[in-house]
Amino acid sequence: VNTSKKVNTRGFLYGLHLGYNYDFGKMVAGVEGNYTFSNAKGHKNVSGTKLTNKRKDSFGAALKAGYKVTTDTVLGAKAGISSTKYTTSFGGLKAHKRHIGFVPGVYVEKLINDHVTVGVEYSYLMSKKHTSKARVNGVDIRTSIKPRSHDMLVRVGYKF
After folding, report:
1. Which of 72, 76, 97, 107 has the fewest Cβ atoms within 10 angstroms?
2. Phi and psi for 3 in degrees, rounded to 5?
């Protein structure tokens, strides 16, 4: 049995981002690291058997570059890598796998006072396909997961 179904996962991300930005006048460049938790999950019935996918924790790093559209607002882009853990269940098969992916994104960040920033970010996680195989009740089952994720983040930051 080969499964080839799109499973939409929905849920929330929450976590911690740490980074450093350097101000070049109108331009800003930086690096950041993150650790994120997720409760995103989804399922689909495949021939009467429930296929479930859950997104767990992830960690990663990114490079950022931005342009100051005003003295306190930055519009920018970022590119990074992420290691995200997924749990996939189908019939008696349960696979836990960490996927490495490329994560491009865009962001807007506003300085509220000398130390606090708020912003929004959109990113798109793209990971390689992984295939798991198992024999359940005498039937060979193969499931593949090719993680793709549209993420919208609201961020609050503190500048030292």
Report:
1. 72
2. -105, 135
Closest C-alpha to 21, from 109, 123, 124: 109
Decide: 101 and 126 in contact? Cβ < 8 Å: yes
pTM of the model: 0.84
- Dihedral sign (CA 132, 81, 159, 113): negative
Residues 6+ apart with CB under 8 A from 59: 33, 34, 35, 36, 82, 83
Q: Reduce the DSSP state of residue 24 to 3 states and report it.
A: coil
Name residue 61's amino acid. Answer: A
Phi/psi of residue 57, nearest 5 degrees: -85, 165
Name the DSSP class of 113: S
DSSP E strands in 24-115: the ranges are: 27-38, 41-46, 49-70, 73-90, 93-111
Mean pLDDT over 102-108 rounds to 98
Beta carbons within 10 angstroms of residue 107's beta carbon: 18
Task: Give the closest residue to 90 by CA, choosing from 41, 53, 51.
Answer: 51
